[in-house]
Design goal:
homotetramer; 14 strands; 13 helices; Rossmann fold; alpha/beta; 8-stranded mixed sheet; 5-stranded parallel sheet; 378 residues; Dihydrodipicolinate Reductase, domain 2
Chain lengths: 378, 378, 378, 378
């Protein structure tokens, strides 16, 4: 296998959540190495952040233009191969366009651009560039979403008649019901946030999920938004009737005011021979429904899954992928201790836990062998 | 924040799952850098693997003794600070002991040693060494396990009267029911695998979980094993009655023949004022029971959680931590495309997905603004 | 408390499921006694069925008109007080009208009539009659649906902004995809089944559930049906955009082709201060969501529930109401044995089970008292 | 089918929950008619209660002995055929014995007797009597418990190796932690409540469930109780190690101090080819686990179920049996209205609901037919 791919990062500095997500993802399969970046519009902050996460500072650039210019001067085998664009939405288009024109591969956060026109221009640019361009519709990376797609492709549902996708969140409640806040936040300012809030931010994921899993294209739609207040210009809730065909229909439901919903992405696909249901908050369970057979629950890592699904699973069945994070938390605690930083009791298991464990194991064997008697631990 | 900690790896090469888990975990919070290793007993394989995952080969050593010797020659700020021990169980003790005696920090897979006597010796060694020693009881790293511990510590359950912990798996079924296999596999050979199979491998996690979350110590136990076949010498199933106190009791149930169970670790803790229940396969849901109030479900990332729990959450509520892996799968697909390797349709969203998304978003706005009419997508 | 109410039954003979449901419900609280009926259009079958279920045959009438005529001749304290109308839909209106005009109370299956015009006429008739008229929107009888309504009324959600109700079934799949069947079945013949299949049969329950629980009225709607085939004239699937107010919106989703869905009625109500979710297939769990607090799960029978909810619960918490049926199955098995009919092993626990139980209990006490030793059962 | 069976009731008067459960169950399949009773030790209260629930008072007897004596004087076809014994536990034995000796069938609440010796005597009595005797281990009546039994009998799990049954409740917490209460309540007085509290009341159900579903007999056991306080003489918690065979083992876990648990009966059965899991609080879901296939979820009423299971289902799939109670609640509300009693808004759907429903249905059709436009409701 070749060496790690040289990755540049645009945006995602400081506390940026999307920054964490991309960095972790880039490391997980040992495929990428961050070699350059413009983490922040402020050059000093960018450098500071690079030190924090131990990225060499010599290729932290003062702005995007400089990054492109300087990297092109480097010999090809040292140059950044691919850039991840994590900047505010309106910068996606100009950055992606310039990167493609200069032969870089691109991994771009969604929405890819702020308008459909820009999107089509980008598509033309890519045609000419012939490089790789990935949009991070993250949810298509779940093993069970991939399994759903592959089984549908192989005909598990027969002809599809109906789809129902939901993306419900409640987070904008803390803003929208306050007149002051809703008039000042950039998220609800069309100038800054683009044409749509709810549908542009999350509805589009539900849309993508439908087309990804079913292989069908949505041909037409009818939409009703809710702005909740007369003085608010951005949709915070919407329902979309969709048609794939005269007799193949469905609905996309999206909301940012669905109180108490966290990241409620869910999809149901109904076909002649069966149906699938999947929910993002319990991503390891894929439900296959039938009119005549018991419900089946597919889980990751089993030999019964498709190649595409298994390729996305790194651990045996029953280990939720979140176990990486559980282990990472223990490494984090140990790191603090090693550095002599303050850490709380409970951040990582100490040797005492190991000692107790052995005491336990030997006691169970003694109890059983002596005829199921009580044994005291030390 | 200081620079990354210099990490050495012992074992975990090739397809080792535990190797993947530790490397990913080490990267996730940008705290560690792998600088040296003995990935494999075979030096050539070790070197090969280092190239594969892009670890510099100059500090890949031919064996553990050489690693210690050579690293000690390096100046302190270049030297490996901490070693992760991922080797077969019987090597944990000698390696950990030597590392501690030479001033290294240690992160050690469980079981820490193969006997309680070794464990106590190691404890003495650590006393003198004064370094950091972590045992990877991974499950204590889950945000909701930490939340449980903290709430119990603050008195949420009042006095605890009963605990019930389970760790059920079914994987040994494929071996145990076959006379040939069960007599030849090292896992069921006491010489190679140690004193206990089921209790040593998984029961001990349940034990640790009880002591970690309740803060109580198990004082005595009574155990009954099942070997399933006369010719089998290792426990593959066992139930342990436990006592923390004359009137505080519980049970640990562990099995490797619980057919169809994958990684069924679960714990229930009952106290005077309430109870907690948690299951490893749905790690983001912590259930708080009460005799008089509605059941409450705690989830990660919320402000209502404790500091220890929040410290272990990297994303907002509703994003299962497995989302890192979903994103990582997309990065993996992109990496293959960038390298010009073979990849399957669906491994990452392409620009076409981005174009479709924008087409969708603009159509929803048009439909709504024109009075909820049908709009065709391109 | 007064004596049982005298109940007449129209329809519901033979294997009619709706007949079983109404009879069982009438008996459950010891409030009704069936004294007369026209179970079936065929008088002989009606008589036969009356004998089967042990209703006196002297007040089984040959048709509806005779029932009304003859009952009116009886003294008031012997006369049928209330009639349950379980006949085909088109008979609901004429029967209900005549019953009301003659001073009878009415319990009527839904849809109450086949047209809105009939419904308004019936409303006028009821005004004049001044009797009791109940429509069996069964789902409003669930304790947790009632709890949801009462808590909303008391302001638990604050102002409501969004509702989402679903009623998904898949049963019509066995008919709709077969050209022969779909052209011949009365369910899909507008002449016999009325104006709407999916929305008339199940969508209307979702509609009723919204108005019942929220106390809001739906003011306008926009609907899209799916007929699935050009030669089919009845909706088998539909999505309805609804508005309670300019800024209070929602959606009703109903389907009879949602493959594998059984009786998937579900409702979600989102308000300023919280939200509720409830699913008919797990009717004992009412979920209360919040943006800032842990999710709460309300269950029937607890003191924290409202009077209206508690009034509908007959057993302590944790006993699903279906336990009546479990017990009824045991009574059924015993009945067969008592009558000397054929019955299967397992239909009811025999004395042997009782004997074993006592053997078990005494052995547990002996084992504990003798210091946790093994005791053999007989 | 013959006429209803003549049923006598002993105990179960007034607010007795067990009385409600038995009466409802007796009515559900139209098989029984209550013709005589001693509802209460106090004759006046017995008569009063009979009037309340409309049982003829002429066969309400002043005590059990009189009931037997007088009924025997009646001609055989008028006489009580079967008696349900719902009295305090210590009366089960003498009543059952006398009834059997006089040729009556018996349906007896559990525990059947208070000692194993009594149980064996009763068994002898039954042998001679040759009548029917049912013990109400209610949980064996659930359709999915029956399905589990039948599938195991047919070999779905292969050889069984392990069982795990739990019955956790928390209700005794309100008594046990209060010194005053725990010393005065009859439930914790061995003189009145018998030899065991927790194991005798609920553990025995778990025991019965294991033997019922697996067809195996438990051969020996080892038990540990928890009394929680030195001054308490009755077990309120216990764990029982069980052996069906040298290599077939399991555990029964029972508790009345499992805080927040309501009626937590659950069972897991692991065999060579698969496993079953079932929980009483979600009785309609039977989980079939496999090491190699997707998890399957069986639900009642489907053609794939066994005869014994289908025999216990009265409604189509997706209707939880609790729907009888939802409907019963509506009948209850209507009964109150008919009698002119006070009732709350929401107790039953009125004609207004029916009118609204028709308005809704016609509007959906109009909206769709006019091209998906908005239609106002009245």
């Amino acid at each position: 296998m070749p060496k790690k791919i040289k990755l540049g990062i645009l945006g995602g500095g400081g506390d940026s959540l999307i920054g964490v997500l991309h960095r972790v993802a880039a490391h997980i399969n040992d495929n990428y190495e961050i070699v350059g970046a413009v983490f922040n519009a402020d050059f000093e902050e960018s450098l500071e952040f690079a030190k924090e996460i131990d990225v060499p500072t010599n290729r932290i650039y003062k702005d995007f233009e400089t990054l492109v210019e300087e990297e092109l001067k480097l010999p090809k085998d040292e140059r950044i191969q691919v850039c991840s664009i994590l900047t505010p939405n309106f910068l996606h288009f100009p950055m992606a366009k310039k990167l493609l024109q200069n032969g870089f591969h691109v991994i771009c956060e969604k929405p890819m651009t702020t308008t459909y026109d820009e999107a089509k221009i980008l598509q033309d640019t890519l045609m000419k560039a012939g490089t790789v361009f990935a949009v991070t519709h993250t949810y298509t990376g779940y093993p069970m979403v991939r399994q759903m797609r592959e089984m549908i492709k192989e005909g598990a549902l027969g002809k599809i008649y109906k789809v129902d996708a939901q993306y419900y969140q409640g987070w904008i409640n803390t803003i929208i019901h306050d007149k002051e806040k809703r008039s000042s936040v950039w998220r609800l300012d069309p100038e800054k946030a683009g044409i749509s809030s709810c549908m542009g931010d999350i509805g589009v994921h539900a849309f993508n999920m439908i087309e990804f899993t079913t292989g069908l294209q949505i041909k037409s739609l009818l939409c009703d938004f809710n702005y909740l207040y007369k003085d608010n210009q951005m949709d915070v809730d919407g329902t979309v009737l969709i048609r794939m065909d005269e007799h193949v229909k469905g609905v996309i439901r999206a909301s940012q005011v669905a109180t108490g919903e966290e990241n409620g992405l869910a999809i149901a696909i109904y076909g002649e021979k069966g149906a699938f249901r999947w929910e993002q908050e319990k991503p390891n369970f894929l439900y296959k429904l039938s009119d005549t057979e018991p419900l089946q629950v597919y889980k990751p890592g089993h030999a019964y899954n498709s190649e595409l699904s298994l390729d996305g699973t790194k651990l045996p069945p029953g280990h939720p992928e979140g176990i990486f994070d559980a282990m990472a938390n223990i490494y984090l605690g140990a790191a603090r201790a090693i550095r002599g930083e303050r850490y709380n009791d409970g951040e990582f298991p100490t040797m005492l836990d190991g000692v107790r464990g052995l005491n336990f194991i030997e006691s169970t064997v003694a109890s059983h062998k002596q005829g199921n008697v009580w044994i005291d631990l030390d």
